[in-house]
Each structure stands twice: as C-alpha cells, then as structure tokens.
Design brief:
The protein is of the alpha/beta class. Helices cover 42% and strands 12% of the residues. The protein is elongated, with a radius of gyration of 29 Å. InterPro entries: Aminotransferase_I/II_large, HTH_trans_reg/aminotransferase, PyrdxlP-dep_Trfase, PyrdxlP-dep_Trfase_major, Tscrpt_reg_HTH_GntR, WH-like_DNA-bd_sf, WH_DNA-bd_sf.
C-alpha cells in the first residue's frame, strides 16, 4: 500500500464520518477498507514512519491505530516489518438500517413519552415552574462541605455498601424531619435516593403490580404520573378543590386502588393546603382499602407561616410513605432525595435502590449531612424562604394591580410558584403565547390534568421574580387577557 493511498482513505473517512482523533480516523479508514475487501489479505500496510510523514502526524498515532486493527484481528504485526492484512475470511454484506430501525416497545413508548411537549410557553426563560433561583445556592458553604467530604475515608461506602444511604445522613435527616416537619422517623426508616422522581419510580415498582390502579391528584404533578404509568398502573383522577385532594370525590374504582399520590402541604400545581378532615378521610380510606398513601412534601421546606399544616405522615406512619428532596432548597442537579417508610419496608427499598442503580452520590450525601448537623441548612432554608416570600408578593401584587378581577391569583403559603387562573382555554392559549413572546417560560395549568381539565390558566414561578420582571409579565398577561 502506498502512502498516497492511505492519505486518500483517511481523507475520505474524515469527510463521511463524525470528527474524531487522528488515531480514530486512521483506524476507521483502514478497518472499513479491509472489511470491504479493498485491502486484500496478505497486503502490506504503510510503515508507521512513512504513514506519519504522509499524514503529517506522529508515529505514535499511527502505531496506536495499527494496534487497534491488530486487536480486532484485522492485521498481523511482527517485529521489524510493516503490518499485514490478516486473512479474516468472507464477511457478510453490510446494509445500513434506517435510523428508526430500533423500535421502542410498548413499555418504552410510555417511558420515553414527552409529557411536557405542549406544557411550557418556551423551552427556557424566566418564571419557569419548578426551577429554584440558582444565585441563592450557597456555593461557598457547599464547596467547603464537599472538600471535607472528599477527604473523608468512606470504608465500605466507597464500594457497594450503604444502599439505603450513608448512616450519617440518614441520622441527620431523621432528626431534621422529626424536628421541622413532625415526622415519625428513625435512621432505619430513611432511604436516600437520587430525587423525588427516583423515589416515586422505586415506590411504584416496589408497591404495585402492572395493571393495579393508582389515584393521582387532578390536576397533579406530571412526574408522579410518569412514574406510575411507567410501572404499568392504571391512573384514576383524585379531584382537587379549595380544601385539597378529595378521596370521596374519586371514581368508584378507588376501592380497588393500590396507591394514592398527594402533595398535601403545597398541592402541585394549585398551591393549596389539604385540610385536616380531608387528610383523615384519606387515611381512613387507605386503611380500609389496603392502599398506600405516597405523600410528596413538595416545597415543604418553604412554608412561610410556620407549621400551621405539618406533614401527613405523622398522622398515619403505618400507611403513609413520605417523599422529599433537596431539589428546591439546594439544586435539582445535585440529585438527592429521600423516602421515609416503616423500617421493614425501608430495608427492602434499599435493595431496590441497588437493583435500580439509583444510589445517590456519596460525597453529596456527606456534604448535606454536615450542613444539617451544623445547622447551616436550616439557616439557608430560612434565608431562601424569606427571599421567595418577598418575590411571591412582588409577582402577586403586580398581577393583581394590573389585571384586577380578570384573573384569579392568590398569594401562596409557600413553594416556588403560583397559579394564575384564567376563564377558559382560549385565554390560557393567548396568555401562554404572550408569555413566551416576552421571554417567560411558564406552563399551562390545563396540561396538568388527567383528562379535560376544568382548571385553566398559567403556572408561574416567582423564584427569579423582581419588580421589573413582574411588571413586564403582568403587562404581557394583561395584553393577552384583554384580547379574549
């Protein structure tokens, strides 16, 4: 083989494939030529010295490519002579398959469905629901905690131990949740996960079988719907009104439901607190029906009026499984969440975490544990809660002063977002479009419904609100509502 021929092969391969290192380009060019029969068995390749000169690269790069060819059995290399194309026998003809040749299964169609395709006014922008304000993240405090964690000897936790979570974090969280949310919790009842979504997927898989029924708030959190549908559950609507989720208003099939999902402290997306009588009726139903209540304490750390309404789990730790995370208090991308369940169930869920490969990062666990133990996390929660309360007032006041009675919007009791109720779907569409044109990534309320939702409007985050943004958003909303 002549150096010019090698140069031609490499140039042709580079023009028809993804860019890569020179080693990869040489390897791919020669591999494809050998497989296609353009280089016959017994043919000499170019010496590494001449090939390097022809290609303008180092000999090491050429030799590395030749070693890859030898590893695939395509060439033989003997000391003191150029590589020789190996006799590999006839190869089957390669016919390129269409890009969509690998089809999803029925389960895969559910798993890969984009449930948020028509939900947001734009892909990114201000006021996006569920997104905390990144500048409030305690960077220096977290960095110091991570540096300490990185120098800590972990023992078996550095390998494949502690799938329920590091004992230190489980102890710290159990104490924190007992003190701040009133939970019935012990270190043995806490399981650390990679977030609320991971927790819901684990619980749906562990506590139900495909075909079982599950009740989910309507309108409700799309992540819970995804977790339950991925587990093969049939979903039933659990209606929500101004007193929260109402088990008595659910369909008659509720009697056979296995799971029920609620966000009682700060209902998502409407921001309503579930009244105590509703909680007690739901617990009574669960005990009578043999069901399990999954309580997602969504934004539970941001209650601006103390513990007027605590968590539901303390009322019935025998049938309520609690889910929480650090997504909003710190950052979603940290991927730290937790489940609080009766200890026998928690022990089994630890195996589920291992089997699902859903264990949280060990250094992040240590860092969070130290923040809780030092009281730093509690101080951080108070600081960001004050900031979010002020921003909620700014946005609520701007909308009320600009639109008056043309919309329904109330100052939420906590959380990161508020619901702006509009009269119909036409007004919702117009408002969503106007918000997107203004650079705001808000969501349509009707998109959170299981079926045809009677609730229309926008779900708007105030996490990054200031007076300028709030005024601009209110003006956009007024323009849209005034036209419909």
């Amino acid at each position: 083989m002549e150096p010019a021929a090698l140069r031609s092969l490499v140039d042709a391969a580079a023009a028809t494939s993804e860019p890569g290192t020179i080693v990869a380009r040489i390897f791919v060019a020669l591999r494809d030529a050998i497989r296609a029969g353009r280089l016959a068995p017994g043919a000499d390749l170019v010496s590494s010295r001449r090939a390097a000169t022809a290609l303008g690269v180092s000999r090491n790069s050429v030799n590395a490519a030749y070693e890859l060819l030898r590893a695939e059995g395509l060439v033989t290399i003997a000391q003191g002579r150029t590589p020789v194309v190996a006799a590999i026998g006839p190869l089957p003809a390669q016919v390129a398959a269409p890009a969509d040749a690998i089809a999803l299964s029925r389960r895969g169609e559910i798993l890969c469905a984009d449930r948020r395709a028509d939900l947001y006014s734009r892909a990114s922008g201000a006021f996006r629901p569920g997104a905390p304000d990144e500048p409030l993240f305690p960077r220096e405090i977290w960095a110091r905690a991570l540096r300490r964690a990185a120098t800590t000897r972990l023992g078996t936790a550095s390998e494949y131990g502690d799938y329920a979570g590091l004992p230190r974090l489980r102890r710290a969280l159990a104490e924190h949740l007992r003190r701040e949310r009133g939970l019935v919790a012990s270190p043995g009842s806490v399981v650390i996960t990679t977030g609320a979504q991971s927790s819901l997927a684990l619980l749906a898989g562990a506590l139900s079988d495909a075909g079982d029924r599950a009740l989910i708030e309507d309108p409700g959190y799309l992540g819970a719907r995804a977790a339950f549908e991925n587990a093969g559950l049939a979903l039933l609507p659990l209606p929500v009104d101004e007193a929260g989720a109402d088990i008595e208003g659910a369909p008659a099939e509720r009697a056979n439901a296995r799971l029920v999902y609620v966000t009682p402290s700060n209902q998502y997306p409407l921001g309503i607190r579930m009244a105590l009588p509703r909680r007690l009726r739901l617990i009574a139903w669960a005990r009578a029906a043999g069901g399990v209540v999954i309580e997602d304490d969504y934004d539970g750390e941001f209650h601006w009026h103390g513990q007027e309404t605590g968590a539901m789990q303390p009322l019935a730790p025998d049938v309520v499984v609690y889910v929480g995370s650090a997504a909003k208090s710190l950052m979603p991308a940290l991927r730290i969440g937790w489940i609080v369940a009766p200890e026998p169930l928690a022990a089994r869920l630890a195996s589920a975490v291992r089997n699902a490969g859903a264990a949280a990062n060990v250094h992040a666990q240590l860092a969070l544990a130290s923040l809780i133990e030092e009281g730093t996390w509690k101080l951080h929660l108070r600081r960001v809660a004050r900031a979010y309360e002020a921003r909620a007032r700014i946005l609520t006041d701007a909308i009320r002063s600009r639109l008056g009675e043309r919309v329904r919007v109330g100052l939420p009791n906590g959380g990161l977002q508020l619901a702006v109720r509009l009269r119909d779907r036409a007004a919702e569409d117009a408002a969503l479009h106007a918000a997107g044109e203004g650079g705001f990534s808000v969501a349509r309320l009707s998109g959170y419904a299981l079926g045809a939702s009677p609730v229309t409007g926008l779900l708007v985050s105030f996490a990054d609100a200031d007076e300028t943004r709030a005024a601009a958003f209110a003006a956009r909303l007024e323009g849209a509502v005034g036209q419909n």
